[in-house]
## 1
Amino acid sequence: MEKKWTPITAAEGVEQALKIFDGKWKLVIMFHLFGGQVLRFSELEKAIPTITQKMLIQQLRQMEVDGVVRRIVHAQVPPKVEYALTDWGQALCPALDALLKWADLRENHDK
């Protein structure tokens, strides 16, 4: 059964969704993990050179708590840790593609 939205419940729903992606880096991290990408921490660091190691750790931990990213630990020495989107995190891809297209409309409109 599809939820019926009112202006108030829709605004509350959007606010809750945006809290999950609050911060400068979470969406950037997600874009690197879309399409089933599984990346090691060091690969994410290289892919996003302007993020600090501390911030990347914090963002990944919060995204894991929120159920957007899964942390995969391989039992080996030295430890190998990889990150991937959960199915729920991956499901956001079409919405973010739509957001990119929407942003592109403004760029084209301003010219």
## 2
Amino acid sequence: MFDIGFVELLICGVIALLVLGPERLPTAARAAGRWIGGARRMVSQFTTELDRQLKAEELREELRKAGDIGLDDVEKSVRGALDEAKKYEHMVVPNDQARKPKPAPAIREPASGGESSENDAPDTRS
């Protein structure tokens, strides 16, 4: 990223020695080292988190693709099993019951206009 060689570092050190002096240079060097270390840790954490998020997104996409394929297979196998079961339905259910559809449950409608009939009364039988 940055191309800093030994000569550039030596020039920075000499300038820092002239500006800060020999008394404050070690303290400033420690502070600069801590600051650079903190920046490196922050960049490292950021790249680690970014890599984790990318891997998680790739995994979600793979699961989405696998889920779509899996649902098609499940649907085919269920349809096949139902077709197979229909072939053997006559062995389980007698012929007269197999052909008759079950009646739909009756739906009660509320009485309109205050008229009441025997069918509208609530069922009190236990």
## 3
Amino acid sequence: MTATTRKPRPAAVLLTPNAEARVAKLMSEAPEGAIGVKLSTPRRGCSGLAYSVDYINEAGPLDEKIETPGGLFFIDSASVLYLIGSTMDWVEDDFTAGFTFANPNAKGTCGCGESFTV
């Protein structure tokens, strides 16, 4: 019997170096028991789905795990299909700071930019 090997599949979301640095900062300040940060897309906002990044103490069995230099980053298993091919960045300027998402699956966003549709 011939064994087949599979190439590792690329992560659903690409984190920029700025996003990885922010994950590292978050993990350096994480509450006790946190194992990483997790991206999910809960239903909310004008357009239906929003991006949410939170600390987690336990990963779901089907969550995608991405190892970054500063700690573990997870993607909620129910959100992966909405996020495949996305790039997550951390942007700071004089007035705002936050994660931004370039999501090829988003068909539209609300006027305030807080939510999106697929």
